[in-house]
Amino acid sequence: MLRPVELGPNQPKQFYRGGGAITAFRGRPSSDEFRPEDWVASTTPRFGLEPDGLTRLPDGRYLRDAVEEDPEGWLGPAHLRYFGPSTALLVKLLDAGQRLPVHLHPPRSFAYRHLGSRHGKTEAWVVLSTTGAEPSVYLGWSRDVDGDELARWVAEQDAPAMLATMNKLVVRPGDAVLVPAGTAHAIGEGVFSLELQEPTDFSIMLELEGFGFPPGTGDLGLGRDLALSCVQRRAFDEGRLSGLRKSFHPAGRAPSTAQDVLPGAADAYFRAQRAGGGTTGLEPSFAVVVGIAGSGSLYGDDWRLPVGRGVTIAVPWSAGVTGIDGDADLLRCLPPLPSAASTDDPRGS
To answer: Measured between alpha carbons, how far is residue 283 from residues 2, 92, 297, 313, 319 in Å?
Structure first.
């Protein structure tokens, strides 16, 4: 039987500023201001920069190698049959010390045809804390956007026009926002979130200026026209936006039974549950557990690990049924169930 492992920070250098909220969350000294992301239990390398982004276990091995050495122990037989020796999940802590550029990620069907991957990059944000008067995210277009108009914005690097045509959503701690692949989006300055993603590092940048990207980059090597073909150009109306949002109240006591924190449409890509002390009977699964408040223990039949704010743990399937005690408030990040993932399987499209 494999046992859960507490993980330290894994913060690859990035092109934008942030990271102070991560070090405060983890209770560690401040680090380089260009390390705004903590890739937690990552078996996904940065695009074109492997092994950057991969998580190392306390014994020095990459988590990816450990999973490949014992895939059934880490992932379980049902997961292994459908996904192979992949965790099918990428989790990050993300601290936007400045507004991120307008960008998007390709859907599964596009990634399968053009990037040789069965995973695209749908993602979700669970807001942990915010600063500033109006902490916001930008999600999709507020009106339909013509293809020529989009191409002109990108060619002229007209970020003000892009942002003015996007849905600006003010967020607070406890808000969850699902970002379907193909959706133009950006995170505003002062938003610190837990981010769940499909296990790729595929990004198509619509906004390049001011972020250090050379002209002609940000298209995954596909060419600008092909890359822009996967942009969702239809407007998100209020009904669609409502279906992509969900909230919980982090100031209240954590529930003693696991509660889903993401919109139901996320189930085909990943799952996230909030659970607190008194929770028992959490089913065996590969999981990434993040402590968001309180303190206590995560435990199984013959193991126990302390948990609290800023603690991150990789839990293998073979650790068995788990429970939580004390007043710990945890977010438990999970891969999709095969039955849900199969509804958007590119191999059948």
So the answer is: 15, 23, 17, 16, 10
Cross-sheet strand order for the sheet of 5-7: 5-7, 312-315, 287-293, 329-334, 271-276, 259-260
pLDDT, one tens digit per residue, over 127-161 is 999 999 999 999 999 999 999 999 999 999 999 99
SS3 104: strand
Do residues 222 and 202 make contact, with C-beta atoms less than 8 angstroms apart? Answer: no
Tens digit of each residue's pLDDT (9 = 90 or more) over 217-264? 999 999 999 999 999 999 999 999 999 999 998 887 888 999 999 999
Contact 22, 9 (CB under 8 A): yes
- State in Å, rounded, how far the first CA of the chain is from the last one: 38
| Report field, pTM of the whole predicted structure over 0.90 | yes
The DSSP annotation for 312-326 comes to EEEE-GGG-SBEEEE
Distance CA 268, CA 271 (A): 8
CB burial of residue 69 (10 Å; 0-12, 13-18, 19+): exposed
Integer Cα distance of 319 and 301 in angstroms: 8
Instruction: Provide the mean pLDDT of the chain.
Output: 97
Three-class secondary structure of residue 168 per DSSP: strand
Using pLDDT thresholds of 50, 70 and 90, give the confidence band for residue 349: low
- 13 C-beta neighbours (distance < 10 Å), count: 12
Query: pLDDT of 14-61, one tens digit each?
Result: 999 999 999 999 999 877 899 999 999 999 999 999 999 999 999 999
Q: Can you list the domains of the chain with their CATH numbers?
A: 8-247 (2.60.120.10), 259-344 (2.60.120.10)
Nearest to 5 by CA among 328, 287, 232: 287
Place of tokens 């960008």: 103
